[in-house]
Design goal:
17 helices; about 280 residues; about 0% strand; mainly alpha; single chain; Farnesyl Diphosphate Synthase
Length: about 280
C-alpha cells in the first residue's frame, strides 16, 4: 500500500513539508503506519506481541547501524546530516511507539479513560514529537506543542472512527467514560434506535475534548518564534483538518455509529492551500 495515499490529510501535510526534509518524514510516516496497524490487523494477541517484539529488536539493531527491514535500511541510507540532527536520543521514541502498541495488545481492546489517554499521548503524541524534530523544530516548547497536537489528532481520529472501530471489536472510549454516560459498549457496535439518553452527552464530551486539545496545541504553536511556527506548518494543517472533522462528527450525531465520517478531498486540498498562504495558523 502506498502510504500516504494521494488526497489524504497526511499526503497534503507532506506536500507542505520542505523538499529537503520530506524523505525522512515520509519514512517516519510509513514506519509508523506499518507498526500501528499490527494490533488492529492481527487477531491473535500472541502473534501481535511477537511482531512488535521483532520490531523492538529491529530498532535496537538499526540504532547500531544494522538494519534488515527495507524501511529501516532506507532510514540508514538517509544523509548523515539528517540523522545526526535527530541525535541519538530519538531512538527511545521509536521504542516508545512499540511500547504503546504493546499496551494496546495487552489491554485486549478495553481501557479505562486514563489508560486510553496515556496510550494516545505515548503513541500519536510521541509520533508528532518525532515529526517536529524531523521538520526542524528543536526547542522543548515546540516539541511539547507537537506532542499535544498529536494527542488532539488521535482524539479526533478515534471520534470519527467510533462506530467503525466498535464494529471491529475495538471500543476506543474509556469504559469508565461510557459508564458515566450510561452507554454500553454493545450500543456503539450495534446501535439501537433510539440510542440511550446518555449518548448525546458522550458524543459532546468526546467532541469537546478533541476540540479543546487541538485549540490549546494551536495556541502553543502560535506562541513559538516564527521559524519554529513555519517548521510545524504541516502539523498545523493536520490540526485544522482534525478540528473540521470533529465538528462534522458532532453535527452528524448518530451517523458516526453507522459510517465513518471523512472530509472531502476538495476540502482537505483547500485547507492545505489556506495553510500555505498563512490564512490558517
Amino acid at each position: 500500500m502506498d502510504v500516504p495515499r494521494a488526497g489524504t490529510s497526511l499526503y497534503h501535510a507532506l506536500r507542505l513539508t520542505p523538499a529537503a526534509r520530506r524523505p525522512a518524514l515520509h519514512l517516519w510516516v510509513r514506519w509508523w503506519h506499518e507498526v500501528s496497524r499490527i494490533p488492529m490487523d492481527v487477531r491473535d494477541p500472541g502473534v501481535a506481541e511477537a511482531k512488535l517484539g521483532w520490531w523492538r529488536q529491529e530498532i535496537a539493531e538499526t540504532a547500531q547501524g544494522r538494519a534488515r527491514h527495507p524501511l529501516t535500511q532506507a532510514w540508514l541510507s538517509l544523509p548523515s546530516a539528517t540523522r545526526e540532527a535527530m541525535g541519538e536520543a530519538h531512538w527511545p521514541w521509536w521504542q516508545q511507539q512499540l511500547d504503546g502498541l504493546l499496551q494496546l495488545v495487552h489491554q485486549t481492546r478495553w481501557m479505562d479513560d486514563a489508560s486510553l489517554q496515556q496510550h494516545m499521548q505515548q503513541t500519536t503524541g510521541g509520533a508528532c514529537r518525532v515529526a517536529a524534530r524531523l521538520l526542524g523544530a528543536r526547542s522543548e516548547a515546540a516539541v511539547t506543542a507537537a506532542s499535544l497536537l498529536g494527542l488532539g489528532l488521535r482524539q479526533a481520529h478515534q471520534l470519527a472512527r467510533l462506530g467503525q472501530d466498535a464494529r471491529a471489536g475495538w471500543i476506543m472510549v474509556g469504559i469508565d467514560l461510557l459508564q458515566s454516560h450510561d452507554v454500553r459498549a454493545h450500543q456503539l457496535s450495534r446501535p439501537e434506535s433510539p440510542m440511550p439518553a446518555g449518548w448525546p452527552g458522550l458524543l459532546a464530551t468526546l467532541h469537546q475534548r478533541a476540540r479543546a486539545t487541538l485549540l490549546q496545541a494551536l495556541d502553543a504553536v502560535r506562541a513559538l518564534p516564527p521559524a519554529e511556527r513555519q517548521a510545524l506548518r504541516p502539523l498545523v494543517y493536520l490540526a485544522h483538518t482534525s478540528l473540521a472533522l470533529a465538528e462534522a462528527v458532532h453535527a452528524g450525531g448518530e451517523t458516526v455509529l453507522h459510517q465513518r465520517i471523512v472530509l472531502t478531498p476538495l476540502r482537505k486540498s483547500w485547507m492545505a492551500q489556506q495553510v500555505r498562504w498563512g490564512w490558517l495558523r
